[in-house]
Design a protein that fits this description.
The protein is α/β, with parallel strands linked by helices. The chain has two helices and eight strands. The protein is extended.
Length: 152
């Protein structure tokens, strides 16, 4: 009887540990191990303040990919953002526009992809040319404050 109780407790502990691991993995930004990958694209921005690796890429609010990397382009000192777009979203026009957006007033940053109307579709290694940088609340408030002080 004692052996059966120890076995049941052991199974329960292993099951609880597995559940905690599963919840922790889903709560983090770690991609599943066996997830199908898509294709990589890049874009350059003059300012991406607040955008992070693992930030979502969305079309009309639907997540279609993630930011994989952010680097400084040494040629023009812009931020080069590399993204992974999920495989099922393979008909995004090449002339699409990418902008840095905010979830709510003070929320996290994400990339908003606005599809264009061109004939060709984005493929692995393509670069989006039309980009709009992020609007920083600090910059806007700074401009408003300086405009009020200049008027006096």
């Amino acid at each position: 009887m004692k052996y059966k109780l120890n076995l049941m407790v052991g199974f329960f502990v292993v099951f609880a540990a597995f559940c905690l691991f599963y919840i922790a993995l889903n709560a983090s930004s770690v991609e599943p191990i066996f997830k199908e990958h898509g294709y990589h694209i890049t874009a350059n921005f003059s300012d991406i303040t607040g955008l992070n690796v693992r930030s979502p890429v969305r079309i009309a609010g639907v997540k279609v990919g993630v930011v994989e990397g952010i680097h400084l382009d040494q040629n023009d000192f812009s931020a080069k953002v590399s993204m992974l777009i999920e495989k099922q979203f393979n008909q995004i026009p090449k002339d699409s526009e990418l902008s840095v957006a905010t979830e709510g007033l003070l929320g996290a940053k994400y990339l908003d992809l606005s599809p264009g109307f061109g004939d060709g579709y984005l493929a692995d290694g393509d670069r989006i040319e039309k980009t709009t940088s992020s609007l920083s609340l600090e910059k806007i408030l700074g401009k408003v404050a300086t405009s009020f002080t200049m008027e006096k």
